[in-house]
Amino acid sequence: MTTRQDCLDRDAADPLAAARDRFSLPDGMIYLDGNSLGALPVAAAEVVREAVERQWGADLIASWNKHGWIGLPQKVGGKIARLIGAGADEVVAADSVSVNLFKLAAAAVGAQDGRRVVLTEGGDFPTDLYILQGLAGMIPDVELRVVEPGGIEAALDDRVAVVLLSHVHYRSGAVRDMAGLNAAIRAVGALSLWDLSHSAGVLDVDLNRDGADLAAGCGYKYLSGGPGAPAYLFVARRHQAALRNPLSGWMGHARPFDFVDDYAPAAGIDRWLCGTPPILSLTALNAALAAFDGVDMVAARAKAGTLGDLFIERVETRCAGQGLTLASPRDASARGGQVSFTHPRGWPMMQNLIARGVIGDFRAPDVIRFGFAPLYVQYANVWDAVEVLGDILDSESWRDPRYQNVAAVT
Ligand SMILES: *Cc1c(COP(=O)(O)O)cnc(C)c1O
Q1: pLDDT at 409
Q2: Is residue 52 over pLDDT 90?
């Protein structure tokens, strides 16, 4: 049986313990939602203030050159590249995940005559499905093939142009076998497109080792880039010359400041830019990524796994018989950074937890979800969070009317 003292001992021995000091977390709060909005890195607050006051405020438009604003999408992309096993010239920060998925899926279809099927799984993150529905509705002969979870391999054939999959499932936290799926996708001549939103910054993602073709991911979750932070995209070097960005905006032009009438795509990853980059948001994301300096992602993943294991063990012990059912893989090697449980009254329970300073989130219809960002969540936090959950269940305090109202953002 684990004790709270064991948790404190594990924190004292944790090789990643020092990384917590790189984040600003409110006193008394246990933050288990870094998979939805990463905590504020201390450096980001200072650097954004400086960018507003000294760069925007004093140097104004000269800052595009003087402070390197124009190169920020590539600079930030290069930092993310290390975290996802890509070359610095294969990643750029741009737009949102939704927009990047559109650009990449449309490009993959456009580059392959005769292949008109876009393949994905049902039950994945909604925007991924919605974007593909929009794409299929736009190009008359494109067919969207949505299969049951686990059905991708059986649905692969020589009409498939691109397969979109989440690396880690947003609801269950289940990790897919990226290398195995890429091999199957490659065998029928299709391209893989991975959504890394729930894996980058918590798993040791290795796109090139695992043979990925295309990917996109989120800047505001484990990467802690701030609310609405720019997303990023990856195009493997071997595909960069052939694929065309359908959103052919001026920032992806070979020479944007020639101001010529005809679009000519930039070489390499730069063509995946569209419009003017959001400099303040990129500045925050750039500073946030420094929190990962020196962090070994294999160690980060291992810690997220042991935090999750501890959480499962504690919930199943302390909250036994309370109707909570594990909705994530039990085996840490099959799980991302989050653990989900289902309970028919999950919504008021989560509201009660939040009111008591334990922050997780709820996903309709019945999932309560807890994220274990390895850079700042401590083992003692896990212990304390489960004690609060146990107390809420024992006392049935979640039945209070104030926890029943459903908010706009869950
Ligand atoms: C968070 C998340 C997104 C976010 O998409 P945006 O367009 O950046 O809002 C997309 N896909 C998945 C799987 C996510 O978890």
Answers
A1: 83
A2: yes
Residue 106 in tokens: 């449309």
Please determine, for residue 408, whether its predicted confidence score (pLDDT) is greater than 90: no
Give the distance (Å) from ligand 1 centre to CA of residue 16: 27
How confident is the model at residue 405, as a pLDDT?
A: 86
Q: Return the half-sphere exposure (C-beta side, CA atoms, 13 A cut-off) of residue 300.
A: 26
Whole-number Å distance, alpha carbon 303 to ligand 1 midpoint, is 24
Which pairs from 150-157 meet CB under 8 Å and 24+ separation? 150/121, 151/121, 152/119, 152/121, 152/181, 152/184, 153/181, 153/184, 155/119, 156/119, 156/184, 156/185, 156/187, 156/188, 156/190, 157/117, 157/188
Mean pLDDT rounded to a whole number for the chain:
97
Cβ atoms of 232 and 92 within 8 Å: the answer is yes
* Residue 328 C-beta-side C-alpha neighbours within 13 Å: 31
Band (pLDDT 50/70/90 cuts) for residue 133 is very high
Q: Residue 219 in contact with residue 92, Cβ under 8 Å? A: no
Whether residue 1 is predicted with pLDDT greater than 80 in this model: the reply is no
Rounded-to-integer distance, Cα 261 and Cα 364, Å: 48
Is the predicted pLDDT of residue 45 greater than 80, yes or no? yes
- Structure tokens of 249? 């905006």
What is the rounded distance in angstroms from the CA atom of residue 176 to the CA atom of residue 196? 11
Locate 48 and state its tokens: 């954004």
Give catalytic residues, as residue numbers. 125, 195, 220-221, 369
Euclidean distance between CA atoms 120 and 288, whole angstroms: 32
97: pLDDT strictly greater than 80: yes
Ligand 1 site, residue 125, Cβ cutoff 6 A: yes
Q: Which conformational region is residue 224 in: left (phi greater than 0), alpha (psi within -120 to 50 degrees), or beta? A: left
User: CA-CA distance, 283 to 6, in Å (whole number)?
Assistant: 39
Which ligand 1 atom lies nearest to the CA of residue 221?
1
Q: What are phi and psi of 49, to 5 degrees?
A: -60, -45
Pairwise CA distance, residues 301 & 336, whole Å:
8
Q: What is the pLDDT of residue 302?
A: 98
Instruction: Give the model's pLDDT for residue 9.
Output: 98
Per residue in 182-194, pLDDT (tens digit) is: 999 999 999 999 9
DSSP, residue by residue, 255-307: SGGG--SS--BPSGGGGG--S---HHHHHHHHHHHGGGTT--HHHHHHHHHHH
Share of the chain above pLDDT 90, in %: 97
Sorted by sequence, the CB contacts under 8 Å of residue 132 that are 6+ apart come out as 101, 105, 118, 120, 144, 164
